[in-house]
Amino acid sequence: MGMTITEKILAAHAGLEEVKAGELINAKVDIALGNDITGPVAIKEFEKMGVEKVFDPEKVVLVPDHFAPAKDIKSAEQCKVLRDFARSQELTHYYEVGQMGIEHCLLPEQGIVAPGDLVIGADSHTVTYGALGAFATGVGSTDLAAAMATGEVWLRVPETIKVNLTGKPSSPWVVGKDVILDLIGKIGVDGALYQALEFCGEGLSHLSMDSRFTIANMAIEAGAKNGIMPVDEKTLIYTKCRVKKPYQVYESDPDAVYSQEIEIDLTSLKPQVAFPHLPSNTRSIEDVGEVFIDQVVIGSCTNGRMEDMRIAAQILKGKKVHPYLRLIVIPGTQGIYQQCMREGIVETIIEAGGVFSTPTCGPCLGGYMGILAKGERALTTTNRNFVGRMGHPESEIYLANPAVAAASAVKGRIAAPEEVIGN
Amino acid sequence: MSKYIGKVWRVGDDIDTDLIIAARHLNDASPENLRKNCLQDVIPDFAEKISKGDILVAGKNFGCGSSREHAPLAIKHCGVSCVVAHSFARIFYRNAINIGLPIITVGDVVEAFQDGDSIEVDVNQGIIRHLDKGQEYQAETFPPFIQEIIAAGNLVNYVKKRVKGDV
């Protein structure tokens, strides 16, 4: 019986010939990741485990990004715990403010994750790296501590749902975000609970790497253990100048077993908007109606990459942000920030009346850099619209792609890109 | 010990980690900070209302959202002895096991319980009892590997044993 790409990576890392869905395994990790919120808790647990040194200082990655640059004294203390540990353990991959970015934008950009890797991260959006054909999943701080100590993690081999992408987007304003929101709308926030989501089909070839990262990133919003994609030419072009270590490419067998198959037709797909208070509460842009908004955020580990910045700038070029609205744009990494400067994107955003921030997770999780007041509404390119996620429990969040976000920033209400710019 | 008796606090489906402990409180992982802000936007002043040993009974997908271990920790620090749910989001599920917060997945059985009911949960045997109605339900038990972690108390203790070569 054939295996899926997920099963093959797990088997290889557990030292087994084959694994089956439902099986519990101990697997070796290639990368163990933590941030300034989950890292300090993990470090505290690590210190209880009776181990002096991390299993491999090149494989433990720490990135202060959630409340960094530190938003207050307590956050500064948490960042310091991370920094001190990184120094005392002599970690290769610790990224200080100035080098850091939003972790899930940063790690692929730095070539830290390769196809076929097994990555665990004490951050639910660790699933992002599945876009590179890696197995990547979010875990808690104690899991991270155990992995730092032993280089291993316990995992249940997940069943896999196959998501077959057909056709080609018929508009430049349909991107990865719409694919994943459409899927979550169809299967619900627990539609892939404990399972892998494997995206494949010829439609994938029409999606950029940045779009693919967005899709894998929000697999967790359907409850999935991981989101994963086959490695193709686009993946190899992406990894070629970045990944320095040897790696192995895995692919699903033709007779691999899937728990379910779902098809998404990219040709008929329209930009999607998730209404409060769940990412599954989706509508196509033409069914949104009149929704006035107070703030637009373009950024995050979901949509803070170059493609997202370029789309936002393309729509905002020569336009003005609606006077009743705040626009906050946050590039995912320093590298993306610099590229935005080179391409005039920073200038375009500022000319339009938006702010262009240093990389941080800040507003996405209600940390800082754009918190919502009672009764306010935001349209954002982030990943969660839970009650109180970005501020006051009585505020509202709508999720969409960067084109819809930029168009909405101009109109002061949720708007289709075509209302602001021609195709 | 695997048996817990307490009063039910009933919550609905898709209670996410932001509702369990909002990110605005995550700049401080101290037990007291997590305790007092636990479930604040679902049951105001939950930490003050709850009696030690009470049991949370939740709907589907409990703990969805972020990987923050602060969520099961906050529940534990409140004095909740056990969480019973229709289903758990996967990171919350493993976090609860890893930190030693007893949990049990029971499916539709949660429908039998309301706020204030008396409940008995035997996590190892997978038995749930509605003490007011005198009804008993059978739920899933944990696979042996996970039971080893539970038996060790938490993942830290389990890893300590592994490091020493005891398991």
Outline the structure in words.
The complex is a heterodimer of chains A (about 425) and B (about 170). With about 425 residues, chain A is α/β, with parallel strands linked by helices. Chain A folds into two domains: about 5-265, 2-Layer Sandwich (Aconitase, domain 3), CATH 3.30.499.10; about 270-420, 2-Layer Sandwich (Aconitase, domain 3). Helices cover about 30% and strands about 15% of the residues of chain A. Chain A contains 13 helices and 18 strands. Chain A has helices at about 5-15, 40-45, 75-90, 105-110, 140-150, 175-185, 210-215, 235-240, 300-305, 305-315, 335-340, 345-350, 400-410, and strands spanning about 25-30, 30-35, 60-65, 95, 120, 135-140, 150-155, 160-165, 195-200, 225-230, 260-265, 270-275, 280-285, 295-300, 325-330, 355, 375-380, 395-400. A five-stranded parallel β-sheet of chain A has the order 4-3-2-5-6. The model of chain A has no long low-confidence stretch (mean pLDDT about 95). Chain B is of the alpha/beta class and about 170 residues long. Chain B has a single domain, classed as Aconitase, domain 4 (Alpha-Beta Barrel), CATH 3.20.19.10. Chain B contains seven helices and seven strands; from the N terminus they run βαααβαβαββββαα. Chain B has helices at about 15-20, 30-35, 45-50, 70-75, 90-100, 145-150, 155-165, and strands spanning about 5-10, 55-60, 80-85, 105, 120, 125-130, 135-140. Chain B has a seven-stranded mixed β-sheet with strand order 4-3-2-1-5-6-7, covered by helices on one side. The longest helix of chain B has 10 residues, at about 90-100. The model of chain B has no long low-confidence stretch (mean pLDDT about 95). Chains A and B meet through helix 2, helix 3 and helix 5 of A and helix 5, helix 6 and helix 7 of B.
Structure described in brief:
Chain A has 423 residues and is an alpha/beta fold. Chain A is built from 13 helices and 18 strands. Chain A is 29% helix and 17% strand.
